[in-house]
Design brief:
The protein has twelve helices and 18 strands. The chain is α/β, with parallel strands linked by helices. The strands form four sheets. An eight-stranded parallel β-sheet has the order 9-8-7-6-5-2-1-10. Strands 11-12-13-18-15-16 form a six-stranded antiparallel β-sheet. The protein has a two-stranded antiparallel ribbon with strand order 3-4. 49% of the residues are buried. It binds alpha-D-galactopyranose (GLA).
């Protein structure tokens, strides 16, 4: 098996070969993750507040289910080698029970290396024990972040290293979403599913600036053959509401991520959110695009300078189209229906505005703000 995986890695030829945990992530995972806002300062209290907010502000109803602790929860190992939470987290089982008590699920983070990216204890040499500890605590999701594994493994060992943790998770008998985080190295989209990944990061880290977000998002074109129910490309977590982009830029961020069928992990402080941010995160018509049962990742249809048209087919035969303006002034952007295999005459609905725009012949043109997006459903 090990040899097979290595050959597959070298040839870059494995698509979803069925080792994935197929009972989870049938649609792209949705939830919240502590990293983008709290980074290493995160505490158990922050995680509880996030869980409280998700329930009270309507995010849970909109589909955000996973409350994920990222790096910096780790303490030392006890005499038996079992990993303990650090002082900021204390009783991990109590935290897990609290989040479960709200009808939510909870995620944790580690690295296959000796240390995590922030220098905390990693799982190297303790994979079996750690998987069991996460299951004993009741975790539902693991993000497994390469980082210092670089010091103990070669990059061509990545598939077997990730599979080792996947197998350990499987042996616990608990369904646990397995999130591969190794920044897209080794064309992970070609082998991520075969080593049990339910999602895999396709890029290095996002940050809260339009330039970075848009380069990551618009660069995803071409990866669509590798995504599908149970195994998703992950262009990194959302920055919506963190303050570094304006409203139109966050609309672009969310529009792109739903067209990409990307995991939607909010990364802001949910306890201090503006109504405008909440509207972007919880627009149900927009989220339905991401969560569509067909599970197809959208792709770029046309590009003329800074103006781009992207499309994603839906299970009911409709097509969702994103009109994007990466330019510095407002611009009209046109989608030709023939480019999206839609008949000459079609009805168009604006998903952000919840508004039917009428029937159009051959094409639709929308005015798109600088760095903005219009998301329409064409039938
Ligand atoms: C890496 C990951 C981030 C985050 C940090 C934590 O940079 O890509 O998403 O998990 O590590 O240290």
């Amino acid at each position: 098996m090990k040899k097979l995986i290595l050959i597959a890695f070298a040839l870059g030829c494995v698509q979803s070969a069925g080792a994935e945990n197929s009972s989870v992530a049938t649609t792209p995972p949705m939830g919240w993750n502590s990293w983008n806002h709290f980074a290493c300062k995160v505490t158990a209290a922050d995680v509880r507040s996030a869980a409280d907010a998700i329930v009270s502000n309507g995010m849970k109803d909109a589909g955000y289910i996973y409350v994920n602790i990222d790096d910096c929860w780790e303490g030392v190992r006890n005499e038996k080698g079992r990993i303990q939470a650090n002082q900021k987290f204390g009783d991990m089982k109590a935290l897990v029970d609290y989040v479960h008590g709200k009808g939510l699920k909870i995620g944790i983070y580690s690295s296959p290396g000796p240390k995590t990216c922030a220098g905390y204890e990693g799982s190297y040499g303790h994979e079996e024990q750690d998987a069991q500890q996460y299951a004993d605590w009741g975790f539902d999701y693991l993000k497994y972040d390469w980082c210092s594994a670089e010091k103990v493994y070669r990059r061509d060992q990545m598939p077997e290293v990730y599979k080792k943790m996947h197998d350990a998770l499987l042996r616990t008998g608990r369904p646990i979403v397995f999130s591969l985080c190794q920044y897209g190295f080794g064309r992970v989209w070609r082998w991520g599913a075969s080593v049990g990944g339910n999602l895999w990061r396709t890029t290095e880290d996002i940050d809260d600036h339009y330039d970075r977000m848009s380069v990551i998002g618009f660069d995803q074109d071409g990866l669509e053959p590798f995504a599908g129910p149970g195994h998703w490309n992950d262009p990194d977590m959302l920055e919506v509401g963190n303050g570094g982009m304006n409203h139109d830029e966050y609309v672009t961020h969310m529009s792109l991520w739903v067209l990409l069928a990307a995991p939607l992990l909010a990364g802001n402080d949910l306890s201090k959110m503006t109504p405008e941010t909440l509207d972007i995160l919880t627009n149900k018509e927009v989220i339905a695009v991401d969560q569509d049962a067909k599970g197809v990742q959208g792709r770029r249809i046309t590009q003329e300078g800074p103006l781009e048209v992207w499309a994603k087919p839906l299970a009911d035969g409709g097509v969702v189209v994103g009109l994007f303006n990466r330019g510095e002034s407002v611009n009209p952007v046109t989608v030709s229906f023939k480019d999206i295999a839609v008949q000459a005459s079609a009805t168009v609905r604006d998903l952000w505005k919840h508004k039917d725009l009428g029937s159009f012949n051959g094409s639709y043109t929308g005015e798109v703000q600088r760095h903005g997006a219009v998301l329409i459903r064409v039938r």
